[in-house]
């Protein structure tokens, strides 16, 4: 046998559909079987009636009217039974329709979040048909939704009282009960849970926001509210963005003044991640980038100049570290040529072990002698003066001269 409403197969003796609750319509074969059973019941009733009407004595002759009345009794009895059965059938059918109407109304109002009204409608259906499983199943689901709705009312009261901790705990319990429940009836509850979750998060973040002065902490709070909808969440997100931008601006500006441009850029970029539309911070970032570029170009020029200067200094140190300030040469009464010279360390570094090679010429330019002498002291700091001295015997030429041919030294 099949339900003509939802096309579900049932046993032959089933009366109502276990899915939709409607009265099952019998097939033609069942109708024929029912008619045969009714006729059989009718024959039995007729026989019983005839037996009851038979007198214990020998039958007497009946008139035509009595025969007519006797023949109508079974007909009247059959009609009465049929009327009673039909009346019962119609009553049960009407009651089934009322049950289905109550169930349908309950489902509609439950989908709209009116769980108490749905509960009342289903209770009426359950009272009329206590064994109707679809109604009992709907009633159980509505009771769960109604319980969750009452819990949400308690949570809202806690939120109004600023009891965020307990509200958050209860909200998590509701979420846990909703996991795995795919019935559309819970749609209103889910919407309420989402709205309350947003409100709890906004209130929690707002309570911590004013005491935060660290970008990382504020960024964590920002991530909690950035995906939330609603005016309160949007307003809080904008406040966090503005505060992050202000802190980032201060840190970047401080680093810029110290010429620590890389740290300044990092600080500005960190703020722009969360506040990309902050015009003040964006302008500072562009300024830092430009100043960094100029600083690096100037630094490169300084490096090149320093390298050039170092090369020049190295050349001097290598080739002209010692300068002759003056040479004093005198011929004494014994014919000895006494020479004293003052030298200068013109290098940028200390030098040591300076030696001087010299030549003495007579007044005609002829070489009298050559020699080598060490300067004193042996170690000379940059910019210090030092000297050398030597004597050439038996020169006998007042116009003799001394020439420095070559000097050697070592750089420290």
UniProtKB/TrEMBL annotation:
Signal peptide: none annotated. Residues 278-313 form a coiled coil. Keywords: Coiled coil, Membrane, Transmembrane, Transmembrane helix. The chain crosses the membrane at residues 68-91. This is Zinc ribbon domain-containing protein.
